Every structure is written in C-alpha cells, then in structure tokens.
Recover the amino acids of this structure.
C-alpha cells in the first residue's frame, strides 16, 4: 500500500479549490477581453474570486494561518487581522452548474438522510472524504438553520478536522439591544480565539478602516437598490447575489469592492436615465424570496425574461436593510458588526429569529419595488422558511400580489426539474393574468 | 397525543416540515388546545420554532411566548437564559395576576427533582439481567410524567417501583437495545421493536434520560440561576447544542456499559437535519467498538410497521441474536 505524503495530501485537499480558481481565472480572462455594458462588472468580480482563492492556496502551501468559515461571521475581522479565509460551502455554490455535482450528491446518501440540506450535505461529504483545505482555525456559524449547525458539528468530529480549533458565536433569537450586547461579547471571545490560534493581533484602527470602507460599499449598494425601483428595472437576476458576494465575501472592506459598487451604480444610473431595462418589454416584476439559484441561471431566469418579460427585481441576497457601522469606538464597531451579521445579512436576518423580519421584508419589498408577484422557491434545506408559507401567502393576499411556492433543491435539478418549474410559472402567470 | 391528521396545518407548513410539528399545529388549529391559558416555545429546531410564529397568528391562546435558547453551554449562555426566564416569569405574573416567589420555584424544583429521582430508580431496575419493565412501558411512564400533576404522579411512580422490585423480570428477549433520538412519545413504536425480541433497556430521548438523568440544584441561592444552569449546561443535551457532542458520546458509552447494551437504534423524524448528522456521527463512532447502530427514519404517527419489523429483525440478526 502506498502511503500518501503530506504534500500529496495537501494537493488533494486543494485540488477542488485550484480547479475552482482556474475556472474563475478563465472567466476573468474572457470578461476582461470584451468588456461591454453591464458585463464589464464581471471581470473585477471574477478576478477578486481568483485572488481570494490564491490567498488561501498560498497560505496553505506556505504554512501560514488561514480561516475556514461561513458567510455572515463578521469577515471584516478576518480582513482586519490579515487572515485569508474561505467559506467551506462556496464550492457547492460554484459547482452548482457542474455536470459532476449530481454524482456527488448521490454519493452523500450513503452518509446522511437525503432530506438533509444538499448544500451542507455535499460540503460535509467533502470534509468527510478529506477533499477540502484544512484551515488553521474554523469559525462556525450556528444559525440561521439547523443544517448549518449540524454541518459544523459534523466537521468538529471529523477525524482530521477535530484537530482544527473551532469557535462559533452563539446567536440570540432577538434583534434588540440586549441581544446585540450579548453577541458583541461573543465576538470579543471570537477575536481572542483568533488571536490565540493564528498569532495575529487585531488592530482596532485597521478594523476601523475596514468598517469605514465597507460602509462606503453598503451606502453605494443601498443607492444601487434605489435604482432597481425604476420601471423597467435596469438589471436582472443575479446582480444582487454578486453585490452580496463583493460586500460580504470576496472584497470585504476593500477599496476595490467600493469601486465595483461605484461602477455598478454608474451602469444602473445610465440605464435608468435612458429608460432601458433588463428586458425591453418588462411585464412582470418578481420578488424571488431566497438565494438566486445559480443552477437555474442559465435556463429558467433567461426564459422568464424572454417568454414573459418577467424580471427578478429583488431577491433575498440583494436586499439591503443594512445599518452602517458606527466606527467611533471598538465597542460600537463590534455591536455594529454583530447587527450586520445577525439582523441585516441575508437569511440570517429573515431565518434566524421570529418570523417578523420575514414577513416585514415581503411587505417592504413589494411596496418599494412595485412587485407584482412573490416567489418562495422553497429550497429543500430551508425548513424554517417552508414553515412560513401560510404566513407568506396571507401577507401577499393582504398586499394584493400573487404568491407562488415552488418546492425545489437549489443544487439538484432532479428534485424539481427546470421544465417542471417553467410549467408552474406558466400556469401561475396565466391564472393571475401576468406576462 | 392522539392526533391522526395534519389537514389544517398543511396549508401553513410545506411538506418538508416534520410531522411532529404538523400534528402539533394541526391540533392547535382544530381547537384542541383551546383550554390553554398559555403556550410557551423554545427555538429548539427550525420546525418547532416556527409553530410559535404560526400559532401567534392563527390560534387564540391568551398568552404565547418563545424563549431564546442558546446553542452553546458556557457561562454567558447560562446567564443569557436566566434573563430569558426572568422575562418569562414577569410575563406570566403580569398575564395571570400572580407572583412567583423564589420559594415557589424552590418547591417546584424539589418536586420535579423527586420525579427525576424516582424515574432514575426505574432505569436502575432496567440494568438487571431480567428487567421488570419493557422500554415501551417505560416510555409510557415518562410521557405521563410530563402531563400529570407531579405530586400524584410521584405517588403512583413510587407504587409502581414497589411492584416492580418484586417482579420476576423479562427473560425471553434476544438482545438489549438502546434507543437514541428526539421527541419520541409513542410507546407503540418501541413495542414494535420489542415484539421482534429487542428489549429496549435504556435511551437517549427527549421523553427519557434527556429530562431525568440529572437534578436541578435545590440549594442554590437563586433558583432561576439553578434552572438556567440545568437546562443549558447540566442536563443531557440534544444535537442542537454546539460543541457538546463529546459529552453526549460519553454518556452513550456509559449507558452501553451500565445497561449492557448490545445494539443501538437511532430513530429520527424525517426532515430533521440535526439528527441525521448526529446518528451518522454516532454510528461511525461505535462501528469500531462492535456496537451496531441502526438508523430508523419515522413519521410522528406510527406507520410502515411491516417495513420497520423487517429492518429490526435484520438488525437483530446482525447482532447474532
């Protein structure tokens, strides 16, 4: 039997990551060669993904500290501590269009119930099969759903990962001051944990810089969303998810991220001034109340636009209820970061606590964005949201907008096929005289 | 609970919501809990916590409340949960026009601890080579303890223990089993297992050791602090409690040794993300120790008995029994 050397192990663990980096690199090159219209925004985005991947790869290869985490874990702190980081769930999203994903999903069934959220099931499977980069530390996410908590517990007991120090901030169920103070205290413990295990120190002034830069991004994002109120909507599906990716994942607190948002606003502003929309004849304005599935982005969304003039005007990840961070002291920053992580970040805001934000967001978005139908895709992992369907339907009825619940798997087209979803949309639009 | 349908709840909860949640909310919608003055939830899991939101809007219970239950077991979490109980206590006092004193709390803790001590005596008897009570009967006794007036329950449990101490015990079983999982409250489920010859001698269930294995500190100066300490840090946790898996595993190992367990059945309500991972972890953990672990998915209302019998029989075969 041939024993794998440490170097070979590391190569195996980085293989998916490198593959992913290479695919982003190819995309960045393609976008960079023909930058035109809104497409020009993709080049810096994909370049940032390449750089984020490279930072992790470099750290792993050079034995420098890096973090595995999840979104919404206050990444401004990692950036301020100069710690490269990756979210262990990202590969599932970026592989959503990969032809090999179904095989990997099938393989997970030997370990877990197939009703366990596919995203975490596949990510957990990669950890179990030792196919993910082993970080110096892991910052766990204990909310917004059981699947996230369960996946982190799985990682914690894995034979190899159990040696990776792990910390998770305990999420309160409320959004009040008491909760934010409690969470700030948890964050302080997280910082001490990171300092202890990575050898890096948090410089408060550097954190201030990062928070201030991120505030600029959020201000621009809010401005951008104002432009999305326009009829017709200047951009379509997926841009909200990209904005989220820039602000909360790949260019956190970075001037490059701010520039990306400036370009985004400029592009949208120009289109609004010219009266141009994502589609020439916009007839339906959709609120897609969940993450925009990348697996559907090649087929369903373009079909909705072409066939029905139906545009995703707002989605859960593109929505911006953010409060800017008060950078006057360390305490105000920690509290502000906690609020951003708990009460503002997508899904954390809606799914973590009581359903009031969930229902309130529907009300606000429908009114603010001239929405004429609300769609709850109902990813099979989003159990808490799927327990809100009655409340969502009643809220929409009061608002006078039709509501549709699909029931799908964001990562497995076989759960509900795109053809079935199209059929549902056709009937739904026909029943409500839309499109 | 006797619930047989989810016809009303189905309009509010999608099909990926677990059947315990659907049945519970359905009973609320049917008016079967109209006798209640109040209903209190914890954010235990994604399914159950949303019953609070739906209930608040659709069921006319005068007092509804949800407790923010931490997901870790440290001191800050105990302190947080103590505050949660202060808020609940004040809410109840205001709503019901009563005062809940520290002495009232101490008295209630004492009575509940008495229940736990008696229940643990029942479990002690199950360690015998010939246990005088089945797993199904034990579950019925524990479930009754969550609904009956405590003083009356304690008295009856004492009488039962007296009777069992002189009983001959069960000899005709093929294997001694432990059952782990969540909110199993149907003794008939365990009866199906036991009818195949697998005697359930202990458990790690919500209606089982999870509520009775430890006592609450009766002598604490602050009874609310004692309650918080028990519910967050001391009692046997379920998989929603982060970084407490080693303690759960350790208790499972102790039980295997003390109750001479031959195999483990991990039951899970379909769609439960927390338990599918916990069962996977535990089964992996016990594999090298030679303790077989079978995962059984179920719905809240017992069904698919034929299939379940076949799986249990096959499991007992693997135990060589």
């Amino acid at each position: 039997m041939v024993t794998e050397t440490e170097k070979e192990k590391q190569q195996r663990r980085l293989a998916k990551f490198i593959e992913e980096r290479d695919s982003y690199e190819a995309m960045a090159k393609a976008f960079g060669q023909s930058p035109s219209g809104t497409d020009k925004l993709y080049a810096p985005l994909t370049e940032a993904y390449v750089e984020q991947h490279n930072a992790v790869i470099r750290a792993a290869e050079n034995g420098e500290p890096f973090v595995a985490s999840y979104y919404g874990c206050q990444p401004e702190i990692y950036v301020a501590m100069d710690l490269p980081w990756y979210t262990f769930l990202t590969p599932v999203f970026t592989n959503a269009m990969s032809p090999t994903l179904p095989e990997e999903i099938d393989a997970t069934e030997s370990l877990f119930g197939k009703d366990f959220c596919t995203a975490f099931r596949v990510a957990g499977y990669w950890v179990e099969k030792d196919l993910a980069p082993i970080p110096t530390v892991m910052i766990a996410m204990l909310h917004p759903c059981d699947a996230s908590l369960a996946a982190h517990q799985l990682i914690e007991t894995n034979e190899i990962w159990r040696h990776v120090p792990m910390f998770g901030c305990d999420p309160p169920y409320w959004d009040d001051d008491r909760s934010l103070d409690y969470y700030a205290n948890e964050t302080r413990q997280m910082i001490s944990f990171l300092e202890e295990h990575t050898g890096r120190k948090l410089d408060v002034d550097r954190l201030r810089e990062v928070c201030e830069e991120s505030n600029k991004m959020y201000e621009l994002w809010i401005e951008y969303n104002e432009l999305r109120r326009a009829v017709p909507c200047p951009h379509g599906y997926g841009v909200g998810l990209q904005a989220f990716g820039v602000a909360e994942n790949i260019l956190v607190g970075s001037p490059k991220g701010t520039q990306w948002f400036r370009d985004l606003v400029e592009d949208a502003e120009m289109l609004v001034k010219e009266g141009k929309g994502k589609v020439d004849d916009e007839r339906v304005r959709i609120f897609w109340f969940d993450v925009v599935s990348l697996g559907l982005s090649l087929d369903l969304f373009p079909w909705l636009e072409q066939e029905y003039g139906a545009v995703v005007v707002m989605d859960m990840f593109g929505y911006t209820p953010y409060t800017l961070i008060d950078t006057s002291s360390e305490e105000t920053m920690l509290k502000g970061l906690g609020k951003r992580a708990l009460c503002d970040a997508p899904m954390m805001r809606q799914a973590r606590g009581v359903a009031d934000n969930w229902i309130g967001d529907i009300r606000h978005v429908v009114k603010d964005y001239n929405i004429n139908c609300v769609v709850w895709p109902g990813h099979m992992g989003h159990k808490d949201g799927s327990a809100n369907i009655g409340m969502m339907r009643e809220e929409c009825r009061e608002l006078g907008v039709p509501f549709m619940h699909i029931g799908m798997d964001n990562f497995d087209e076989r759960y509900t096929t795109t053809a079935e979803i199209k059929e549902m949309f056709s009937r739904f639009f026909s029943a409500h005289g839309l499109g | 609970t006797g619930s047989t349908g989810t016809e009303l709840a189905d309009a509010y909860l999608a099909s990926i919501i677990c059947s315990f949640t659907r049945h519970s909310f359905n009973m609320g919608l049917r008016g079967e809990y109209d006798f209640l003055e109040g209903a209190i939830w914890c954010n235990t899991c994604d399914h159950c916590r949303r019953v609070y939101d739906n209930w608040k809007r659709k069921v006319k219970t005068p007092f509804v409340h949800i407790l923010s239950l931490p997901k870790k077991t440290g001191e800050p979490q105990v302190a947080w949960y103590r505050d949660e109980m202060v808020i609940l206590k004040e809410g109840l006092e205001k709503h019901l026009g009563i005062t809940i004193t520290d002495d009232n709390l101490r008295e209630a803790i004492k009575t509940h601890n008495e229940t736990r001590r008696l229940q643990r005596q029942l479990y002690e008897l199950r360690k015998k080579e010939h246990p005088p009570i089945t797993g199904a009967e034990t579950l019925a006794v524990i479930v009754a303890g969550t609904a009956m007036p405590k003083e009356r329950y304690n008295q009856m449990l004492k009488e039962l223990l007296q009777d069992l101490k002189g009983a001959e015990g069960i000899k005709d079983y093929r294997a001694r089993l432990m059952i782990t999982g969540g909110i199993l409250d149907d003794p008939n489920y365990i009866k199906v297992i036991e009818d195949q010859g697998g005697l359930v001698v202990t458990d790690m269930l919500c209606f089982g050791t999870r509520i009775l294995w430890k006592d609450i500190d009766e002598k604490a100066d602050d009874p609310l602090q004692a309650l918080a300490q028990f519910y967050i840090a001391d009692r046997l946790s379920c998989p929603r409690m982060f970084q407490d898996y080693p303690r759960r595993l350790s208790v499972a190992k102790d039980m295997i040794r003390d109750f001479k367990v031959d195999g483990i059945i991990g039951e899970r309500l379909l769609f439960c993300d927390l338990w599918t991972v916990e069962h996977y972890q535990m089964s992996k953990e016990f594999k090298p120790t030679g303790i077989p672990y079978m995962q059984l998915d179920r719905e809240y209302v017992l069904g698919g008995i034929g299939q379940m019998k076949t799986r249990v029989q096959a499991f007992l075969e693997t135990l060589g029994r």
